[in-house]
Amino acid sequence: MVKAILEEGIMEEEVLDNVEEKIIVEKKEIKIDDLPGVGPATLEKLEKAGYSSLMSIAVASIAELVDASGLTDSAARKLLQSARENLDMGFQSGEDLMKRRERVIKLKVPAESLNNLLDGGFETGAIVEVFGQYGSGKTQIGHQLAVSCQLQGGKAVYIDTENTFRPERIKQMAVGLKLDPVEVLRNIKVARAYSSDHQMLLAEKVEELLREDKDIRLVIVDSLTAHFRGEFVGRGTLAPRQQKLNKHMRTLAKVADSYNVCILVTNQVMAKPDQFFGDPTEAIGGHIVGHNSTFRIYLRKGKKGTRVAKLIDSPNLPDSECSYMVTENGVIDI
Fold it and tell me: Which of 86, 98, 198, 291 shows the greatest Cβ crowding within 10 Å of its Cβ?
């Protein structure tokens, strides 16, 4: 009889385990159109606005959902609550995050000194800001990464704000790496941004490309602040400019994290008139760009045609610098 009771207890535990597993599976299979108040029309509006997963809805604000879907405040509140209930929004252990870091890919350039500066290459899932004076080689880094990432099976998206993208330069770098120039150009999607609003819209549209093509590993914005700097002139416009720039950077950060891509942004600089010692150059965008960037690299010209890259901010690497050259074949070691 004791044996029967024990067997019955074991069976009950197995049943409970099966029920729990089933509940977990069901939670994982819930889609956006399963949430309350989401019909075909609302689903289409949400997807157009970039809300393609439960997580994107769960981390949004009620006002953002109202603007995107046309729902009322109460309906948007229910939608938000339901999305959060169906996701594990709690804390994760450091071990879990370490396992998640295993999916990070290091995109490399031919200059090993530059790769070593970033402990193996430009990380996916992160925003890398490259800034420097005119002619310091910011765009060259962007072009080189767009080509060399294809050696690792990746593709690139290039948002051009200053008309600096040159297919001819891509062909030169492709030949330098012994790649087919036509195929390399085919794997780079380019869009020209004519205003800050257009630039922000293109950043949101990148999500559509990423959903369609899982091989995209790099998104380049060259340059990040050119339009914002030109459209918002004077101290009176500083606050709205920074708010708008912050929203743009948040969108890029979400894309980097959600789709495991590297976001490379080039940035302009200005001179600090109150600095009497040291290098007076400072990146445009202030703390907004600095805090939203995972890695920050300062470029300057070196001696005899060389370039110097200095890592000035990183979550896990020390400040350091390296030298390299920009030749017809691309970015290479000295």
Answer: 86
Question: Residue 235 carries which DSSP code?
Answer: G
User: Is 282's pLDDT higher than 60?
Assistant: yes
Residue 208 structure tokens: 């559509």
Q: How far apart are the C-alpha atoms of 306 and 327, rounded to whole Å?
A: 10
In the chain, the percentage of residues whose pLDDT exceeds 70 is 88
Q: How confident is the model at residue 209 (pLDDT cuts 50, 70, 90)?
A: very high
Q: Which token pair is 285? A: 């965008």
Structural domains of the chain, ranges and CATH numbers in brackets: 2-85 (1.10.150.20), 99-332 (3.40.50.300)
- Count of other CB atoms within 10 angstroms of residue 258: 16
Determine the residue type at 296: R
Residue 74, preceding bond cis, omega within 30 degrees?
A: no
pLDDT at 8 over 90: no
- Distance (Å, whole) CA 122 – CA 297: 11
What's the angle, vertex CA 221, arms to CA 204 and CA 162, rounded to 5?
115
Task: Report the pLDDT averaged over residues 105-117.
Answer: 97
Neighbours of 60 (CB within 10 A): 21
Residue 223 CA to residue 165 CA, distance in Å, equals 11
Q: Taking Cα atoms as reference points, which of 266, 270, 253, 284 lies closest to residue 223?
A: 266
DSSP single-letter state for residue 274: T
Both tokens of residue 28?
């994982």
Distant-in-sequence, close-in-space partners of 259: CB < 8 Å, separation ≥ 6: 207, 210, 216
What angle is formed at CA 250 by the lines to CA 231 and CA 252, rounded to 5 degrees? 85
Residue 174, amino acid: A
Using the predicted structure, report yes or no on whether residue 55 has a pLDDT greater than 90: no
- Mean pLDDT rounded to a whole number for the chain: 88
How far apart CA 242 and CA 321 sit, in angstroms, is 29
Helices (H) and strands (E) in the chain, counts: 14, 13
